[in-house]
Design brief:
globular, 25 strands, about 10% helix, about 525 residues, 18-stranded antiparallel β-barrel, 6 helices, single chain, mainly beta
């Protein structure tokens, strides 16, 4: 790689990261796409004192429930999602703006032989015609749109992934088991979900389609129907963090040992108007993590909060080496993993107002605090450099890469110490019954950079959904949501230095069809 290509690659990387808030798009919930699982039928009881109750004899003990066979036990379907996106940097001609078309398709098989057993598999394929048949992450043009997965991996084009593969059944209608690759989301945050422990990749807060894949586990759900409570327990076969721990020999410790199976649990409790969730998860190689969330209605305002309690971070932190005087940038910074109490807290509220008999507008605001976050943008160029260079064993000049093999330390929306977000949602306004507008604003309050985005959705021809968005970036030039900075002359990387222009605008258009 030449010095010029390294600088261009880093510029593309910065543009891709700053564009990440609008790039990723929201997994439709299972009920929306596939229909809710059939609820077990229970006989209706006659009201005390009614003629039916007085005339009916004492019923005999019910026989064992016999599952009802289904005439059409197999459903086949999926999703087709065509997307285009562009982003522009300051002082860059429109013709040189980045352009991508990260399309995806989902295909599923849904098997329900009776009302007590269900099997489900969903495969996903990404394809971007603007990429060559094979391209590595060093170009910063990943096919997977989740910001946290944009680095440290080679990708193929097309790229096939397994999103879900599970079987669900009940145990005497008292416990419900789901075994296999599945999605389990914890927490109540709108933009941020620090207690979403069962997804090792963070969700893009501005995504309208969550394309993260599921986690392999065995989940047992025990409802306490008389109180409206729910208890969950799970055995987790995948690693719960983004980076595998290392063995005593220094090699990655995969989950192919019984001792590496993780365990987790969650309780959802209803206390009057308050809903409370408590959860915990642990796995060998990672320190235990705990979480709590609460939501309640206060007059016309819905308030919620979520807190993650850990003593270890999943994403490695970097810092300047104390007393470092060498001009070599690779020796000025070091990775460290703080082993201390590192809470993350989210608090927010939503308020809906009716402006006609059938229409309402919803306002929402949220604050996020991350104890382990960075106070400013000073280290962002280093984090980007680590993310860009770590997949390669050598530097652009052919010398050994001191940062080779390091995990990605640049995680958008989870870099700063303080964040704030707000949104306004206007669904089906007036006679536009198939149209929704959403205006969102997210700011890194620690480095004072911001991104504002307007999303528009309209349903056409019953099944075709047209999506558009327009986003603007403003605030501190070096901040997370702009990423404009100077790279000084760096031996082995950029001998003459270079300038990365900040991102100022991005836009996208998509077509979505549910098959």
């Amino acid at each position: 790689m030449t010095t010029r290509s390294a600088a261009v690659g880093l510029a593309a990387l910065a543009a891709a990261l700053a564009a990440a808030p609008a790039a990723a798009q929201d997994r439709p919930n299972e009920e929306e796409l596939f229909g809710a699982p059939a609820a077990p039928e229970t006989p209706r009881e006659a009201k005390p004192g009614s003629p039916a109750a007085q005339a009916a004899p004492e019923p005999p003990a019910p026989p064992a429930a016999v599952p009802r066979e289904k005439e059409d036990p197999l459903k086949i379907g999926g999703l087709l999602y065509l997307r285009t996106a562009t982003s522009g940097q300051a002082s860059t001609p429109v013709g040189d703006w980045r352009f991508s078309s990260p399309n995806l398709t989902d295909v599923y098989l849904d098997v329900r032989p009776n009302d007590r057993v269900r099997g489900f598999v969903l495969g996903r394929m990404f394809y971007d015609p603007t990429l060559p048949p094979a391209e590595t992450a060093t170009t910063a043009r990943s096919l997977e749109l989740s910001p946290a997965s944009i680095f440290n991996r080679s990708v193929s084009n097309p790229l096939g992934l397994l999103d879900q593969l599970w079987i669900n059944f009940d145990l005497q209608h008292r416990a419900y088991v789901t075994a296999g690759r599945q999605h389990v989301k914890w927490g109540v945050g709108h933009f941020w979900n620090p207690t979403d422990y069962l997804h090792p990749v963070r969700r893009d807060p501005l995504a309208v389609f969550d394309d993260r894949t599921g986690t392999t586990m065995v989940k047992v759900h025990v409802p306490w129907e008389s109180r409206g409570w729910n208890l969950y327990g799970m055995a987790i076969l995948d690693d719960i963090a983004g980076e595998l721990p290392t063995t005593a020999q220094g090699s990655p410790d995969s989950t192919n040992r019984l001792g590496r199976i993780g365990v987790g649990g969650r309780a959802e409790v209803v206390l009057g108007p308050v809903e409370l969730g408590l959860d915990a998860v642990g796995q060998q190689g990672h320190r235990p993590r705990f979480g709590a969330d609460v939501s309640a209605g206060i007059w016309d305002v819905d308030v919620y909060a979520e807190a993650a309690f850990r003593t270890q971070v999943d994403t490695p932190r970097w810092r300047k080496v104390p007393g470092a005087t060498s001009p070599d940038v690779f020796s000025q910074y070091e990775r460290f993993n703080p082993i201390e109490f590192t809470p993350q807290v989210v608090a927010g509220a939503t308020y809906s107002v009716k402006y006609s008999d059938e229409d309402a507008v919803t306002f929402g605001a949220e604050y996020f605090y991350d104890h382990s976050g960075y106070d400013g943008p000073q280290l962002y160029p280093v984090l980007l450099g680590v993310a860009l260079l770590s997949p390669s064993p050598t530097l652009p000049d052919g010398s050994a890469n001191p940062w080779a093999g390091q995990p990605n330390p640049f995680t958008p929306f989870y870099l700063g110490k303080h964040y704030g977000g707000a949104y306004v949602s206007l669904p089906n306004p007036g006679s536009w019954n198939n149209t929704t507008f959403t205006l969102s604003l997210i700011g890194n309050l620690s480095d004072k950079s911001f991104v504002s985005r307007l999303d528009h959705f309209v349903l056409l021809n019953t099944y075709l959904r047209l999506e558009t968005y327009l986003a603007g970036h403003f605030g501190t030039r070096e901040g997370e949501f702009r990423l404009g900075f100077e790279i000084p002359p760096t031996p082995g990387l950029s001998p003459t230095g270079t300038t990365i222009q900040p991102v100022i605008v991005e836009a996208g258009v998509a077509l979505r069809v549910t098959l």
